[in-house]
Amino acid sequence: MTRVWQWNRPVTVREVLEDLQQERSIAYTTVMTVMDNLHQKGWVRREAEGRAYRYTAVSTRAAYSAALMNEAWSTSDSPAAALVAFFGMMSPEQREALRDAVRIVQHDEPEPPEPAEAPEAAPPAAGPGGAGGEPGEEGGSGARRSGPGR
């Protein structure tokens, strides 16, 4: 996946193989199997090009990392304890990045609605409608009167 993300374009098994072979000896079939596994798992999509496939990342590296962390966290017997242990392993720089991320997420959350006033709040002043605030309201509660009594 690292190579696919680095190039940020559709890649062939041959391209990935040639890049990896600069660092170590690796077989074509090994790279092909890994790319096929990534396709089967839904991490890359592929399109036929002649007798080969071109593979493209389905998501970003950040989304992939987040999915892995979420999977590990959600399968824990004690998610809170797992988070505490994870935070304990973080460097000061990573904890600062976490604080920044929490601030961003909190900033993106919609503001909670203002609490509605309780009906026992100060009664509305009597207006032209008599006992309520607006015509058609009874005691300012918003209940509409209808029928012959109105």
Using the CA coordinates, give the radius of gyration. 30 Å
Spans of 5+ residues with little confidence (pLDDT < 50)? 126-150
How many separate helices? 6
Strand content: 5-15%
Structural class: mainly alpha
Strand order in space, largest sheet? 1-2
Number of strands: 2
Amino- and carboxy-terminal Cα gap: 72 Å
Biggest sheet, open or closed, and with what strands and sense?
A: 2 strands, antiparallel
Overall shape: elongated
Helix content: 40-55%
Helix/strand order, N-terminal first:
HHHEEHHH
Residue-averaged pLDDT: 81
SSE topology:
Blueprint: H1 2-7, H2 13-20, H3 28-40, E1 44-49, E2 52-57, H4 61-74, H5 79-89, H6 92-108
Antiparallel strand pairs: 1-2
Helix pairs in contact: 2-3
Q: What can you see in these coordinates?
A:
By secondary structure, the protein is mostly helical. The protein has 6 helices and 2 strands.
Produce a short descriptive summary.
With 150 residues, the chain is mainly alpha-helical. It has six helices and two strands.
What key phrases describe this protein's structure?
two-stranded antiparallel ribbon, 150 residues, 6 helices, 46% helix, mainly alpha
